[in-house]
Design a protein that fits this description.
The chain contains six helices and five strands. By secondary structure, it is of the alpha+beta class. The longest helix has about 55 residues, at about 20-70. Keywords: Membrane, Transmembrane, Transmembrane helix.
Length: about 210
């Protein structure tokens, strides 16, 4: 069938079209209907289906994660108890305010006992947390490498928690070294400090409400 034959077909008399043309027209109409249905109806449903599948996968992941946590809950509780006990034991090692002077004296004597020359021993501003108070001490001492190393070892072996940070070594005269560092000491909160922290926390909760 030529193009002229197709042009001469009467749309109102489709029943008398040649069988080949009728089949082709039917297939074309079917394709157009399916395409229209997809774009106007099924496409949105397909997007919803894709989103639902993604949500399903995420829910499966969340379920497995929560299931794993539930299975290990007893183990987690035991670990938390051990951490709390260890932390409590560390807190008991902290001196109170009245004992801090003794600790500072021990630190100073540790350096003097090793023959070190203190050029600076300056306590800084304390930093308070809900559990303890951190007190930095800026030091500058001069001595031999061996004596400085022994001093650091002595600090580490004190009965109280003392940490040496920000260490800098500078060459001095006569084969000596000058060490600049910050010694961090820790003490327990006294009753007045505990009450002040609790009051501040209570006021903060009221403001949130």
């Amino acid at each position: 069938m030529t193009m002229d034959d197709l042009r001469n077909l009467d749309p109102k008399d489709a029943g008398n079209w040649p069988a080949q043309v009728q089949i082709s027209s039917f297939v074309l109409v079917l394709v157009l209907v399916i395409a229209g249905g997809y774009f106007y109806l099924w496409s949105s449903q397909m997007e919803e289906l894709t989103a639902a599948k993604a949500t399903e996968e995420q829910l499966k992941i969340d379920y497995l994660d929560k299931k794993k946590r539930a299975i290990n809950l007893a183990e987690y509780k035991q670990q938390l108890l051990e951490i709390q006990q260890s932390f409590g034991a560390l807190l008991k090692q902290l001196p109170n305010r009245s004992e801090m002077e003794t600790l500072l004296t021990e630190i100073n004597q540790a350096g003097v006992g090793r023959g070190l020359l203190f050029e600076l021993f300056k306590p800084g501003v304390e930093v308070k947390t809900a559990e303890f108070v951190e007190g930095p001490i800026a030091i500058k001492v001069t001595g031999s490498y061996h004596d400085l190393a022994a001093f650091v070892s002595d600090i580490a072996q004190l009965s109280r928690i003392v940490i040496l940070t920000d260490v800098k070594l500078i060459g001095a005269k006569d084969q000596l070294l000058t060490m600049e560092a910050t010694i961090k000491t820790y003490r327990a909160l006294d009753e007045a400090e505990i009450q002040a922290i609790q009051q501040a926390e209570a006021e903060a909760r009221k403001k949130k409400k």
